[in-house]
Amino acid sequence: MLLSHYYEGLVEAGCDEAGRGCLAGSVYAAAVIFPPDYENELLNDSKKLSAKKRYTLRAKIERDAVACAVGVVTPEEIDKINILNASFLAMHRALDQLKVRPEAVIVDGNRFKPYQELPFTTIVKGDGKYLSIAAASILAKTYRDDYMQALAKEYPQYDWQSNMGYPTKKHRQAISEHGVTPYHRKSFNLLGDGQLTLDF
Length: 200
Fold this sequence. Notes:
The chain is of the alpha/beta class and 200 residues long. Helices cover 37% and strands 15% of the residues. It contains six helices and five strands; from the N terminus they run ββαβααββααα. The chain has helices at 51-64, 75-81, 83-97, 131-154, 160-163, 169-178; strands at 12-18, 27-33, 67-73, 104-108, 120-123. The chain has a five-stranded mixed β-sheet. Helix 1 packs across helix 4. The protein is globular, with a radius of gyration of 17 Å.
């Protein structure tokens, strides 16, 4: 089972994001605080779980967490501040919404922008090591998937219901044929090699 906490004796929030490498759509992040000594053997990095398991676990996370929240940063904001800063901002927005104030933060990855004055630790592959980060990865992923499924109905030609905005061959081909949508990240290399031929 994954570890229940990193900081001893502090109210700790785990954070993770989803959608950082996508060509389209907002970036999502979640923050989760579990009770001390929380246990759940099914929780793991969202990438290692089937969609069905992720959604089943989402309901359990929301029921069991002391507090949890999701933060969103739009494609327009991503283009203004870059995707790394947008990921941090999404996490900060999730932390802002927590109904219980954390005393420390643990984050998946190796970089983070300090949140208020709280101590924080970045943990590479943290979503496969700590329960709260794994839970945050599941919330961020499932809520972002819901959002991309909704956008896919508006713009069916980009295959977002399958690729969730990631740079697949089919997605790039659709950009080449149909141009960009308001949801595309204009600062990204949308066509791969042929970026210069794309007019906004």
